What does this fold into?
Amino acid sequence: MTTTSTGAGEWNSVVGAYDISDDVIINHDVTYDDHIDMTGSLTINASKTLGEGAASKNMTVDGDVTVNGVLDLDRSSSDGNATFDSLTNNGTVHAPSHGTITILSETGSGRCVDMVGTYNHNNGTLIIKTPADTDLRWPSNDDIYNLTINHASAIVRPTGDMDGSSNGKIAGNLTITAGTFNTLDSGGSTSHELIVAGTTQVTGTLTCNSSTISLGTGLTSGWGLDIQSGGTFTGGSGIHTIGSIFAAGGGTRTITLSSGATTIDSKNTGNGFTINLASGATFNHGGGTVTMTYAGNTLIQLSGGTLAFNTFTYNASGRTLELRSPMSCAGNLTLTAGTLDTKSGTNHALTVTGDVSVAGTLTCNSSTVQCRGMDVSGSGTLTAPDASGSLTITGTQTGSSGNDAFDTESGTTFTHSSGTITFTGNTNPQIRNRSGESFNNIVINTTGGTPIVETQRDIAIAGTLTIVEGTFRSYGTNARTITVTGDVSVEDGGTLGGGSANTANHSFGSLTIASGGTYLATSGTTTITSETSGGFAMVDQGTFTHNNGTIQIGDGSTSVGSGTHTKVNTFYNLTVNMASTTVIMLMRPNSGSTMTVLNNVKVQNGVLTKNSHTNTFDFKGLVTVGIGGGSLAAHIDSTTSGTATDNFGALTILTDGKYTQPTTTNVSSIRNVGGTIA
It folds into this structure.
């Protein structure tokens, strides 16, 4: 049965509610001053109005509601709520102010809402509780304020974009209490755009397909994306902009970002986080890119786990992004502007499978940091991990002009923080350090094939150089100086030097060549300025290829040690240049009893002697003692209580020199220029 209004006026009820079992057609302007409960359908004809006449009066229609005229559920005071089977609007709907319209089913055409006409949301909420795969058709250019999906069997699909352009967006919040909001239309052909100005809270499922999505962009009063217990966000492949991301504690919570590009542009100022995921939440990067742009300091974390991205960019000039949990990138990490700080005191690990590019600032504290390649450019600043952390370079940068593994360009700042940088991998990495900067400790541990780590510029190492495996040398035809203040250790499988540019002068604190290690010496001068904790300036238990170069013990101004040792069988040229004549260098062979110098020996300052006076000096070239000063500065002391021998090609003793003979000295010529022979 159908009931049609026959005149304008008010519905009045003496029993407190209208209980109508008919289908109702409004053909005149009508107001209601009590609750309405209809078991049939409601149709409001064109140019006609059905409006709430009294405050807080609810309307329930078990059938479909079709508005060709005006449905006015808004009062200036307190509005009631409305519940419909479906809602088709070709006219105007004034939603209840701060109230709700609830949809329980759908039309015969499969639409829970068909909003063609005008919709005034009045800051109210539209609730979909349709237990079906249903369409939300919204060609109207008016916004929804709040949209709630709340039925476990509901799959709500928009039939067009909801982006606020030619049709409405969600101006308030999207809440998926149960069920699914799926941006792919029912025909499976189009993924529609979605803009939510406020918070998107998901306890059900939000599926984004290939849609362009904006969730709470710029929102600071809450979360852009809020995943509650049982909630699932599936990003799909579209371009996304999200204000901030939160996952509550307890239950299953899954976030999968888009395989396309995601921009995160805000934070929840209530706690300072841009990403805050409680322990147990599942966070999948989706294979896409993430860019953070919030113009303020912010925090990110996955409590109890590692926050894993694919590629990640931070671009916030003058601001700091602070890690509150470990972070990883399967692709590249780019710091365009601003600071990424691993958080001193907690020192969260940073693991990047790809490259790290720093045009902003990377502060590593005591963290364990790993990447394929490190590039510091522009006015970028890298503060490396300190001695309690580590930085490991696993390969070479993709897209670099060469095989750059570590590159600090002109105008950048690098602080070694007394830490260690380790180079691994098998891709022949190159070090391109800014002129004048210093590393602390460097470890070469490249495996597979015959990988070579090359320095493209002069390199200064304030701590130690350890070559575990692989080769470290100058790049190409460029002769580069290697200066190491501390110990240089070449272990089994390691090689130092070699190549076509092995001619520059080097300076090491000490040099130890282990069994299986190799030093392909420069044809210039290798200066040893200190000694190991065991008192050795140089030890050769592996392969020492002199390359017609010079080993110099001491630099004339620094005391190597009061009685430093060398444990080497054969040199080419040997120079002793200690800080004073009281500093003693004791030569001992690595094996046998003979110490050989194939060419010349110079003792300029200090004392050259034997560890055991029964050993033999076999110096085949010119031996020069002193530099021609006025007082004693240089001394070769071969004193022995037993039988010992010195074999010299020639001997020159200058005014500040002294030679103390052994039992036997074999020499082709002696030239004493005011020196002392004892």
The chain has a mean pLDDT of 93. Residues 182 and 207 are 5 Å apart (CA to CA). The two ends are 136 Å apart (CA to CA). The chain is about 0% helix and 50% strand.
